[in-house]
Specification:
Elements (H helix, E strand, L loop, with lengths): L4 H15 L16 H7 L10 E13 L2 E8 L2 E8 H4 L6 H10 L5 E10 L5 E12 L9 E3 L2 E3 L5 H6 L1 H7 L4 H20 L3 E2 L5 E2 L11 E4 L4 E5 L4 H9 L4 E9 L11 E10 L3 H20 L3 E4 L2 E4 L5 E4 H9 L8 H10 L10 H12 L8 E4 L21 E6 L2 E8 L4 H16 L10 H8 L5 E7 H9 L24 H5 L8 H6 L5 H5 L3 H14 L9 H11 L1
Parallel strand pairs: 3-5, 8-12, 16-17
Antiparallel strand pairs: 1-2, 1-4, 2-3, 4-5, 6-7, 9-11, 10-11, 12-13, 13-20, 14-15, 17-18, 18-19, 19-20
Catalytic activity: tRNA(Lys) + L-lysine + ATP = L-lysyl-tRNA(Lys) + AMP + diphosphate
Subunit structure: Homodimer.
Protein name: Lysine--tRNA ligase
Length: about 575
């Protein structure tokens, strides 16, 4: 693997540390008794507790000043300045730890452990006075260093693809992004407390399933070699949780990793987390009340308030929420009444509204397209859309007052669905007929139609009590609570396209452009590590920078002319 000039230098520094008899990756515990946040928040109030502290962090900046230096260290809670004095960390005659290791062999990004005491500098900055220093980890790749000049920020690590692909770097240099994931954990904890306090039990169900049931979605398919059967990554856990209600549990819930073999966009990732809960002897009206209390509780736990900002919208999760039937919503925003309409009438109406539909779509899909295109985006504040047509809801009880509808709701926020709930269908004969309707859609070409799960039907035949179920997209909910329009921002490691590998160009490849060998490492230090990178540069600026680097590094190299430098870049084209 070809290494950049900086990576080569870091490996030389690593070897220099080893040659001094220091293990750059020690195995023994380094006891930490304080964090950066603890010091900055509490030192002024309680100075006596900070006389003997042990701290570990990553070097983020340094100011070397002869026999004393300042270094900025970052731990999981923030940054703090440390004051390193040669004679304090090197009490004897040997000053190599400071003069050689600290000043010459350590780099930005390395992790060190320090012991000492906290004090306030003459400029009023709370700092750690270092009395002992230990190398804990040598970093072999340089961090992207953000620079600021004249009020402008340069070289910020902001490219989304790089940030998502190298989340570990993003979390180091954009430490504020950690707060998104802290809030995500708070959301899970708050939801668990709410369910546990209500007496419901957290369970686990299979990820590998022989029938991908519980949702209308295209599954990922794999193969079990020992059993010689196809298996599917789950698209939902609904049918397994209902089996547990049949088995006698009154309330069960699960935070479920689901997988859907579909497209990716700002609100969809093929791997996502859903929470599903099922409670016996309840209906969808009870579940609406339960849901709005749950989300009010979660919003306060995450942000300290029921209000959240999402883009240009101020959203309030305080209960109660508005309730609108799907029929009324479509009628309000299109003037079209879907009640009693045939599949052909719905298709013609959709086409008349400029909505792209096709012959594989049944009534449910057509209604869903009309609602999605013409209505969904109008609901900004949390709103329950209720009473979906029966064709859209194959696992839902028929409406007690209108058999063409079902007892289902979706919760809409800022034009997006974040929750879906039913009065669950527990009539096994009706459920079998609904599954068979789904199979007919599959035969027409709908690759998202549900499979028939014979074992689930058998479970229903043993009797499932009246039940209401709720599913919440956890990734999408945390997007709203943290004001992030992209699902990739709230996932530590979102799915990415395969990385294009750009190899560092060799000295021979640079030399082929007419670049003298001695200038190649200089160009690499300036960031030109590949021939491709030369194509986007300004030759005049590079010429001036080369002169500056030659002077700064005191290089004994003949300075090329401006015409020669221009010729290098023309050759790179």
């Amino acid at each position: 693997m070809a290494l950049s000039a900086q990576e080569q230098q870091r490996r030389q520094n690593l070897q220099g540390i080893i040659d001094l008899g220091i293990n750059p990756y020690p195995a023994e515990e380094f006891e930490v008794n304080v964090t950066a946040a603890d010091i900055t928040e509490n030192y002024e109030r309680d100075k006596l507790n900070y006389k003997n502290i042990s701290f570990a962090g990553r070097i983020m900046s340094r100011r070397i000043m002869g026999s004393a230096s300042f270094v900025e260290l970052q731990d999981s809670t923030g940054r703090i300045q440390a004051y390193v004095k040669r004679d304090d960390i090197c009490a004897g005659e040997d000053k190599a730890l400071y003069n050689t290791v600290f000043k010459k062999l350590l780099d930005i990004g390395d992790i060190i452990g320090i012991q000492g005491y906290v004090f306030t500098t003459q400029t009023g900055e709370i700092s750690i006075h270092v009395q002992e220093l230990k190398v804990l980890t040598k970093a072999l790749r340089p961090l992207p260093i953000v620079k600021e000049a004249d009020g402008k920020v340069y070289d910020a690590f902001t490219d989304p693809e790089q940030r998502y692909r190298m989340r570990y770097v993003d979390l180091i240099v954009n430490a504020q992004n950690k707060e998104i994931f802290v809030k995500r954990t708070k959301l899970y904890s708050a939801m668990r407390r709410f369910f546990d306090d209500a007496g419901y039990m957290e369970v686990e169900t299979p990820v590998l399933q022989s029938i991908p049931g519980g949702a209308a979605a295209r599954p990922f398919v794999t193969h079990h070699n020992a059993l010689d059967i196809p298996l599917y990554l789950r698209i939902a856990n609904e049918l397994y949780l209902k089996r547990l209600i049949v088995g006698g549990f009154d309330g069960v819930y699960e935070f479920s990793k689901n997988f859907r073999n579909e497209g990716m966009d700002r609100t969809h990732n093929p791997e996502f987390t859903a929470m599903e809960i099922y409670v016996a002897y309840k209906d969808y009206n009870w579940m609406m009340d339960f849901t709005e209390k749950l989300l009010e509780h979660c919003a306060i736990a995450v942000n300290g308030t029921t209000q959240a900002t999402f883009g240009e919208h101020k959203v309030d999760f305080k209960a109660p929420y508005a309730r609108v039937t799907m029929t009324d919503a479509i009628k309000q925003f299109t003037g079209f009444d879907i009640s009693g309409k045939s599949e052909q009438e719905l298709r013609e109406a959709a086409l008349g509204m400029g909505i792209a539909v096709n012959e594989t779509m049944g009534k449910g899909k057509l209604i869903d397209e009309i609602f999605g295109e013409k209505c969904e985006g109008n609901f900004i504040q949390p709103t329950f859309i209720t009473d979906y047509p029966i064709e859209m809801s194959p696992l839902t009880k028929k409406h007690r007052d209108n058999p063409e509808l079902t007892e289902r709701f979706e919760l809409m926020v800022c034009g997006k669905e974040i929750a879906n709930a039913y009065s669950e269908l527990n009539d096994p004969i009706d459920q079998r007929a609904r599954f068979e309707d789904q199979m007919s859609l599959s035969e027409k070409g709908d690759d998202e139609a549900m499979f028939i799960d014979q074992d689930f039907l058998r479970a229903l035949e043993y009797g499932m009590p009246p039940t209401s179920g709720l599913g919440i997209g956890m990734d999408r909910l945390i997007m709203f609570l943290t004001n992030n329009p992209s699902i990739q921002e709230v996932l530590f490691f979102p799915q990415m396209r395969p990385e294009k590998v750009s190899k560092v160009s060799t000295e021979e490849e640079f030399a082929a452009l007419g670049i003298p060998t001695g200038w190649v490492p200089v160009l690499q230090k300036m960031g030109f590590e590949t021939i491709e990178s030369l194509k986007e540069a300004n030759p005049n600026k590079v010429f001036n920078d080369l002169g500056g680097m030659r002077k700064k590094l005191k290089l004994d190299l003949s300075m090329p002319s401006k015409e020669e430098v221009t010729a290098w870049f023309e050759a790179a084209q």
